[in-house]
Amino acid sequence: MDSYDQVSLSSLIKPDRVHKDYYIDPEIFKLEIDRIFSKSWLLVGHESQVPNPGDFVTLTLLTQPMIMSRHRDGSLHVMFNRCSHRGARVCTKPSGNALRFECPYHGWAFHTNGDHAGVPYPERYADGFLEDGDFDLARPPKQEIYRGFVFVALDSEVSDLDTFLGPMRYHIDNMVDRSPAGELEAPAGMFRYRFAANWKIQLENLNDLYHPMFTHASTTAEDGTQFRRQGAEGDEAGKVKLLEKHSSLNMQWEEQVIAGHPHGHTYMQRFPMDRENQGPVYERYKSSMVEAYGAEAEAKMKVHHHNSIFFPHWSIQYMTQHIRIMNPISVDCTENIIIPLKLKGAPEEMWKSALRSNNNSHSPAGMVMADDMDAWVRCQEGMQANGHDWIVFARSVGEESIDNEGSFQGLGTSEANARHQHRAWLHYMCGMDQGV
Predict the structure, then answer these.
(1) Which domain holds residue 218?
(2) 394 touches 16 (CB < 8 A)
(3) In contact, 4 and 21? CB cutoff 8 Å
């Protein structure tokens, strides 16, 4: 299609399938940036990534180069990484510490809060030009921090963050409250990599229980080949296998709750085969939680979910203790930023275990992530082929319950989570009610 109106956009989504143009048309992608991402609260990262004055990280958010930095007064600022002189990227390093930011093109300088700090050889400018002009680094219209998570909105008319998050706010609380100090830290940096597929393919995959036993067969199969190859033997391998010996698909997955709320957010409960923690390290953790929270400690320690997905572009993964920012670069390119999170005040052994788990599973060559990225790229490539124009999401269609507020609940290997995201897509793109 050469152009889209509300009718043609809505025709791409049916109750049990979507048209392949939904994933492969560059014009659709441009509309999504304008109508979905620019109208949502977007996660920049975690404030602990810049703990000290002068600390900064750079990233691309919706094709926009950005800087998150800690100013000398301790305040945190998110700015567009674009010089107000000639438009060059000011900061070229992925992270570091700076007294100020200096553009490498003509030397214009900016304080770590984005304020213009001066220019070389100012005498050649007309009197009052520099003083009267607005040459600060531009900032997003809105910025908020919730429990250490840093959000921006690119449209001043976006509803407040609390309304946007809705019930999903408690999923953030569940992650943070597992810390004896009630805080998270990101002291280990991040994984950052790109894959050649549309952003929505990954988003649909994260709460898809239909794929693990096939896409991740080398991990979930009885012999646990991948984990054995990493040197994990015996009980250690058993902790991460997703299918128990002689178990069926039904026994493992079909009673697990998948659900979601307005704005396209979805989540799944923790895996039914997850084991409760025990041992001396866990007992030390439990003692520190009881000391911090008293009678509420046991409830706060409980992991309730496996994945919580905040539409349109980030998630919390509780088992490996990380957040994933899924940044759309183009119609067929997505950047992943994986940030492992430490439970401040918890035993150091727990943090080291979480890091090992992230390295094994969600690094660019990790055992789980490599499987997924291969599948997503295969989808993007396959959709270019002639043949069927529709991508099917019919599993357990109609079985989920949907309330009049736009929330839903389903079970197991249902594709209800993807259908919920499709309804949210229609809401953003066409202004249609999320209950359609």
Answers:
(1) 162-430
(2) yes
(3) no
Q: In Å, how far from its chain's centre is CA 248?
A: 31
Per-residue pLDDT tens digits for 187-223: 999 999 999 999 999 999 999 988 887 888 776 665 5
Q: Is residue 175 part of a domain?
A: yes
CATH classification of the domain holding 375: 3.90.380.10
First to last CA, the chain: 24
Q: Distance between CA 246 and CA 371 in Å, rounded?
A: 24
The Cα 136–Cα 111 span in angstroms is 9
Token pair listed for 379 = 């989808």
* Rounded Cα–Cα distance for residues 21 and 1 (Å): 9
| Residue 244 falls inside a structural domain | yes
Q: Which residues of the chain have pLDDT under 70?
A: 1-2, 219-252, 272-276, 432-436
Could you tell me if 255 and 316 are in contact, meaning their C-beta atoms sit under 8 angstroms apart? no
pTM, 2 dp: 0.91
| Number of separate domains in the chain | 2
CA–CA distance, 309 with 326 (Å, rounded to integer) = 10
